[in-house]
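Changelog excerpt: complex records now keep ligands as SMILES alongside chain sequences, and the structure block spans every component. Example after the change:
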Amino acid sequence: MRRGRRRGQIIVILLIGAIAVLYALDLAGNRPGVTELAPAEVRGYQGEQLSSIADFRENSIHGPQYVNASTYTLTIDGQVENRKEYSYDALTERFPHYRKVVTLYCVEGWDATILWEGVRVKDLLLEAGVKPGANTVIFYAEDGYSSSLPLTYIEDRDILLAYAMNNVTLPAERGFPFQLVAEDRWGYKWVKWVTRIEVSDDENYRGYWESRGYVNNGSIDRSFFDQG
Ligand SMILES: Nc1nc2c(c(=O)[nH]1)N[C@H]1C(S)=C(S)[C@@H](COP(=O)(O)O)O[C@H]1N2
Ligand SMILES: [Mo]
């Protein structure tokens, strides 16, 4: 009788302990708004083989940036009706989530195929209201980097601002909190650590590498050395 009660107490204590551990793991592993994501990286998606989030070369202009999600804001300004500022939670919770498998090609000769998950830039622009005459979207980053893309490309191709890759929240090295998934454009268009999106009417804006001689269009189906 006494032994039965003791065993019962031990089982209750073990159960409470297990629940506490699971709760702590969940708090540590998940950020608000991405709690539906599995904790482990996926390496295949709908029959496609994926690269690993470790298969990247880190050669950003000033090394990895460590952005604090709780103080982070994304500003949307320029040729818009309403300038907007979003917190990390607002961005990941308010806008619909999309996933797609896209390959990043760096001009240095490596590539990585990843299942990206994010929000559509055009959904953000819709809320800000793009003014007539705008034709360019400029992405600025925490490290001072920038690059631009045509507005029609951003809208027609459903270009994503990704917060996760292979079902894992972007690591700092890969651009946390957001990297642009500039499909069919060279890696230098894939701005990491995005902090500001400026809608512009300056088609000739040149970003960090573009102002140092990289092709402004950045299409991977064109010759990289073919200035344009
Ligand atoms: N903010 C920022 N974004 C950036 C860069 C950078 O230096 N700073 N480098 C670009 C280049 S040249 C490439 S190829 C890709 C590479 O992504 P990765 O560093 O995650 O491998 O990031 C792009 N985005
Ligand atoms: Mo690159």
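The first strand starts at residue 44 and ends at 45. Confidence is low (pLDDT under 50) at residues 28-38.
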